[in-house]
What does this fold into?
Amino acid sequence: MAQFDSPSHLVAAARETYEAGYRQINGYSPFPIEALDEAIGFKRTTLPLIVLAGGILGALGGFFMQYWMEVIDYPIIVGGKPFNSWPAFIPITFECTVLAAAFAAVFGMLALNKLPQPYHPVFNAPSFALATRDSFFLVIEAKDPKFNRDEAVRFLKTLEPMEVVDVEL
It folds into this structure.
């Protein structure tokens, strides 16, 4: 793990690391850095598809819940309308769509971000507490196919960080 003093230095180091062939890398900063996701090779997320699936399931669930109640379970003629009066089902179908999509967004985001994560090996690094204040960190994970501890440390030192730390599991 390498510690940097500025976001621009972190982004430049992340680009060099990605270009050097490392793929299991991550950057930590006290605030979002727009160019960092591109620099570490972050691909598009599947969260929009999860939200779409949640919305579709919510719409179908809301509509067929009303259909089952009004047509199959307890059919009552109200105001001369037919049992399957779908225009009356639209408000509840819409609300179920929004509700299911919102839940899919929250739980999908938590799952994709692997949250909650009460423990991660980078928490063992003594200076990592500064990641929430004023420092920027770049991590090459040991599960990277190209990872060799000595080469990774040597490479990180060429990026001119403030400090390079070996993170123990």
Notes: The two ends are 13 Å apart (CA to CA). The chain has two domains: 2-42+120-136+147-164, 47-112. Strands lie at 2-4, 25-28, 136-140, 163-164.
